[in-house]
Specification:
This protein is mainly alpha-helical and 104 residues long. 97% of the residues lie in helices and 0% in strands.
Amino acid sequence: MLQEEWQELNLSKTILELSEGDIMKQQTVNDTTDNVATALHKSIDKISDSVESAGSVIRDNVKNMTEKQKVVFDQTRSLIESNPFRSLAIAAVSGVLIGWLINR
């Protein structure tokens, strides 16, 4: 009987040790999961910042291009209005050259 109690005590101790080992393993898994989640969040934040920065640069470039386009359009219109016959001659010669190159 004493031997049976001793075996039960050893079995209980073994189960308890296994439980402690499982708890330590679970804690290790939890710590690893937390570390991976933190690293992913940092990476996502960096990507988000980069995309936001790139979007800002693209918006600025589009704005600058639109402004330059307006300036060039206004300059062209002003040039044509101040020299209508010259502009007509240039357009006619350009049309003839393009037609000649296409038919060639």
